[in-house]
């Protein structure tokens, strides 16, 4: 399983959103798109996967990943949202990178 697939599985379970919906290459409803954006952000920032590769893993292009990273960075100014993303990042570190917390 690729690292992006693992991240998709993690955010899918965390947010209770269908992995199939996240993987769907067509336009998604806003809640699904937001979960995908958080997943792309985590794949790029935590796992250090280049944006082009994250795009391939999420069936999107590099510019979509760049947009997602920028959005999530902006949204992290909200304390509650930041806490949620922090939890996702920790899960990705532990479950994908196999690091200890």
Report on the structure:
The chain has helices at 3-15, 19-23, 30-45, 51-57, 62-75, 79-95. The chain has 101 residues and is an all-alpha fold. It has one domain: DnaA protein, C-terminal DNA-binding domain (Chromosomal Replication Initiator Protein Dnaa, Chain: A, Orthogonal Bundle), CATH 1.10.1750. α1 crosses α3 (30-45) and α1 crosses α6 (79-95). The chain is globular.
In short:
By secondary structure, the protein is an all-alpha fold. The chain has six helices and no strands.
Residue share in helix: over 70%
Mean of all residue-level pLDDT scores: 94
User: Based on CA inertia axes, which overall geometry fits?
Assistant: globular
Tell me the total number of β-strands. 0
CATH architecture: Orthogonal Bundle
Identify low-pLDDT runs: none
Descriptors:
101 residues, Chromosomal Replication Initiator Protein Dnaa, Chain: A, 6 helices, 0% strand
Question: What are the SSEs and their pairings?
Answer:
Elements: H1 3-15, H2 19-23, H3 30-45, H4 51-57, H5 62-75, H6 79-95
Helix pairs in contact: 1-3, 1-6, 3-5, 3-6, 4-5
